[in-house]
Amino acid sequence: MPMHITSPLTRETLETLRSGDSVLLSGILYTARDAAHARLCAALAEGRPLPVDLRGQTVFYAGPTPTPPGKASGAIGPTTSARMDPYTPQLLAYGVAAIIGKGERSPAVRQAFIANGAVYFAAVAGCAAHMAACVKSVEVVAYDDLGTESIKRLAVENLPLTVALDTQGGDFYQLGRALYLQEKLTPNNFLE
Amino acid sequence: MAKLRTLSSEAIAACVSRLCIQACTVLPGTVCRLIDEAQRTEPYPPARGVLELMQQNAAIAAEEHVPICQDTGMVVVFADVGQDVHIVGDTLENAVNIGVARGYTQGYLRKSVVADPLRRGNTGDNTPAVLHVRLVAGDHLTLTVSPKGFGSENMSRLAMLTPADGVEGAKAFVLETVQLAGANPCPPIMLGIGLGGTFEQVALLAKQALVDMREGAHPDPYYASLENEWRNAINALGIGPQGFGGLATALSVRIKAAPTHIAGLPMAVNVGCHVTRHASETL
Q: pTM for this structure?
């Protein structure tokens, strides 16, 4: 059974999560992708305040489609996390507590998650119509000129996620594949 | 002399607009059937769960007219123009871009195009499209709109192999490409593979192979066998749906080959995600 957790996530919750865990996340998220990351990290490097306080918050690598009339959100889903690798250690050191995206991270980023006690969640990519139902509200809070790449505050309910990197260094992109390949070789494989 | 058939640029723009919305919200039947087949044959329960979610997502998108994926792509348009067609009004290129801007605005689709690769700057209406025009026989115009997401496009690769690399070198390049891509292109993936031609032609061959939604095997038994062998080799890697392990790493491998130079074996692998979309119409 998936565990129900709430964002912003507490230290205690972050530390109990293990790679491979299925969770249903509710609460507040902030979207930020390529262009917003470039601006956030430029501000941090120059010692300027960020337009939104992301310390202790969860960042979602996502650029939704425009919200159609009568709906709470457009289609939404994770973008490739690896493109944010150059910025991630800086943002985790600043205080971002958790990140949602898709795909493997670089060794330096994996270390940064461990060093900062942060967690990386994977959301199923390309299922944006399904995921839109979990989003209760979308509000632009910074960098409006970036369009889909602006920073948006999302209120979500029961967003299905998998813990990809935990605070102890567990990496489900490695473990999950190893588990499958190992089970494939055993005689009573794939028992449900 | 054949009589010219007149086609208004507005009819072309309206058609492109329709096709953009259709392609982004309705997954082609061929891709749905490939996902169904992958779901039936996937032995790993967690992976099967992910494939079931993908089936549900495609159904919700089609029913509620919402995009299957939030990355509604950069639009690639293939226009097969009959040489007995006379386009009046605006140019073909303008008509296509007017259609893209209209479709992406009216359809609440995401605008994902920047005006310059280095200086960036969102164009605000998802234009311009990438337009490939072919002059063909007849007095009809066939438009194929293929919105391409960049999670998978970014994982695509091109190599100028040598004749000595041969078929084994080509297979090794495909497997290396899929392994380097890992979870990034949203597996289970679809691969369009171009072989032969020149540097620029082979990339287009790969894109055409990806857009080709034929059912069944490659008409050339040699390539039919290669497509099968390469897909099985990819599916032995264990990457699986979402990259968390499983059999279904590739839904399909499609090859398009063309004559090439005595010194060359150009090869391009265009990676498509499990939401490889397109929509076509003939005017």
A: 0.94
Check if B274 contacts A (Cβ < 8 Å). yes
**pLDDT tens, position by position, B10-56:** 999 999 999 999 999 999 999 999 999 999 999 999 999 999 999 99
The domain A3-185 is classified under which CATH number: 3.90.190.20, 3.20.20.10, 3.20.130.10, 3.60.20.10? 3.20.130.10
CB interface of B with A, residues 144-163, below 8 Å:
151, 154
The answer for residues whose C-beta is within 8 angstroms of residue A79's C-beta and 6 or more apart is: A33, A61, A62, A63, A101, A102, B71, B151
B242 closest CB neighbour out of A63, A125, A149: A125
Respond yes or no on whether ipTM tops 0.85. yes
Interchain CB distance below 8 Å, B70 and A181: no
Position B48 in a domain: no
B148 CA: distance to closest CA in chain A (Å): 13
Q: State which of B126, B148, B170 marks the end of a domain.
A: B148
Q: Is A178 on the interface with B (CB under 8 A)?
A: yes
What are residue B26's DSSP bridge partners? none
